[in-house]
Specification:
The protein has about 120 residues and is an alpha/beta fold. Helix content is about 45%, strand content about 20%. It has five helices and five strands. β1, α1 and β2 form a beta-alpha-beta unit. α1 crosses α5. It is globular.
């Protein structure tokens, strides 16, 4: 294990919960809260996986996902979108943009941990 996950999320409770879940499971978790500088964070130290919120200050997660998939450094990094916006149109847009997995809030701790494990072991 010991892989790095970048959590791009602006809700403190979600940051704390996911960081705790994944750290306890052996992951190194880096966090970032601003959509406008998220790509800079990814490119400065590319993670093994990204958990990305849709509604962020500065830029939407969809815009960030589009940029991730369009950049050589980040195009193959698994991205799990975690959002309160679970409408079908949001899922479809995320799929078109190249999301690896789409999960809606509220989520269970076990569901997040198990999915991150499965992505990182693939």
């Amino acid at each position: 294990m010991g892989k790095r996950v970048l959590l791009i999320e602006d809700e403190p409770n979600i940051i704390e919960a996911i960081s705790f879940i994944l750290s306890r499971d052996g992951w190194t978790v880096h966090t970032h809260q601003d959509g406008s500088t998220a790509m800079d964070k990814v490119l400065a130290l590319p993670p093994d996986m990204i958990i990305l919120d849709v509604m962020l200050p500065g830029r939407s997660g969809f815009d960030i996902l589009r940029d991730l998939r369009g950049h050589d450094v980040s195009k193959d990094i698994p991205v799990m979108m975690l959002t309160a916006r679970g409408q079908e149109k949001d899922r479809e847009l995320a799929q078109r943009l190249g999301v690896t997995h789409f999960m809606t809030k509220p989520f269970s701790n076990t569901e997040v941990r198990d999915y991150v494990r499965s992505l990182m072991e693939a």
